[in-house]
Amino acid sequence: MTTEPALPPPGTAPAPASPPQPHTAPTESPATESPAAEPPVAELPFSAPQFTTEMPSGAPAPELLPPAPERAPRAPRRPRPVLLAVSGLVLGTLAGGGVGYAVQAQRPPTPLPPIQVARPSYPAAVVDPTAFAAQQPKPLAIDGDLLKLLIGAPDGSAAWGEFPDKPSWVSVGEFAEHSDSAVRDFKDLNSRGFRRAAEVDWKKGDTRYRVSLVQYAPDRANEAATHAVGTTRNLKPFADGANGGYRVDEAPRYWADSADRYYYGQAVAQRGTVAMVVEVFDPKPVNPDVVKDLAKQQWERLV
Questions:
Q1: What is the pLDDT of residue 283?
Q2: Looking only at Cα atoms, what is the longest distance across the chain?
Q3: Distance of alpha carbon 263 from alpha carbon 152, whole angstroms
Q4: How many angstroms separate the CA atoms of 97 and 250, rounded?
Q5: C-alpha distances in Å from residue 286, one per residue of 64, 228, 291
Q6: Do 200 and 153 contact (CB within 8 A), yes or no?
Q7: If the chain, 303 residues long, is cut into consecutive pieces of 10 residues, what is the mean pLDDT of each piece?
Q8: Burial, 55: exposed, middle or buried (Cβ in 10 Å; 0-12, 13-18, 19+)?
Q9: CA Rg, the chain, in Å?
Q10: Cα dihedral 25, 28, 33, 36 in deg (nearest 10)
Q11: How far is CA 48 from CA 5, 13, 17, 22, in A?
């Protein structure tokens, strides 16, 4: 017997396919009962491979897997030592805290000591104003208007480019631009406690002059000394008691980004937190007496 479906009569619609039923072995029915008729199976519109549930003759019977061996029952698991230790620690802490709280709750409260503040005391004697003023910090050597301390341009002089030909305030950036390394000098001045600066520039003939007063913070008097005489060598004194000196260069220098050369003369001094700088730029060798005279005039205004 095959499972090939029968073709429906022409002109009739094919019946819906019924879900496949699980195959069961035929059972013998009593002799008195007739076998039930099989329902017609709808034929598919295409040819399907034919399958049979009958085993071919002579085929070996399928082998069955042997049953798995029975396992012995597992021994009960022992508690871990770490878990026991942690449990004991937690229980001990809770028990100790409870006992301590119970003991402390039975004790009477201890009163706190009163807050004691010392009363202000005043000297019985009258303070001497002179002695009190002598004990105060000394005022700065120079703490006034730096513009009034600068010397002025002499008669017959002219302005030197865009530089001020009369005493004027200059910023730290403007002061740093006087050097070839403006960026380095700008950072150096700000890191050393630069406070303020005043300057006057003029030109007489082909000779250029510049006098500057640079003041540092009150606690940076050593920076003023470094600015004035810290990097200058071979100085000659220009006045008695002046903390500094003057010098002139024998070799010429060159202006920045130019082939024009000049000779340089300089005088420096320090007064408290103020550094004094006098500069002379001349196309011919600088006269030392000119630098010395300008430095002496400026120093007398600081003292």
A1: 94
A2: 157
A3: 23
A4: 91
A5: 123, 20, 8
A6: yes
A7: 50 50 47 50 53 58 67 69 83 90 87 82 80 74 85 90 89 89 90 93 94 91 84 83 90 85 94 92 95 94 87
A8: exposed
A9: 57
A10: 20
A11: 10, 20, 14, 19
> 């005279």: which residue's tokens?
293
Element (DSSP H or E) covering residue 200 = strand 194-204
Render 31-90 in DSSP notation, one character per residue: TTSPPPPPPP-BPPSS-------SPPTTPPPPPPPPPPPPPPPPPPPPPPHHHHHHHHHH
Question: Which amino acid makes up residue 297?
Answer: Q
Placement of tokens 């620690």 in the chain: 89
Residue listed under structure tokens 């001045």: 189
Q: What secondary structure letter does DSSP report for 11? A: T
- Identify the CA nearest to 244 among candidates 256, 233, 255, 257: 233
C-alpha to C-alpha distances, 57 to 52, 61, 63, 70, 167, nearest whole angstrom: 13, 11, 17, 37, 130
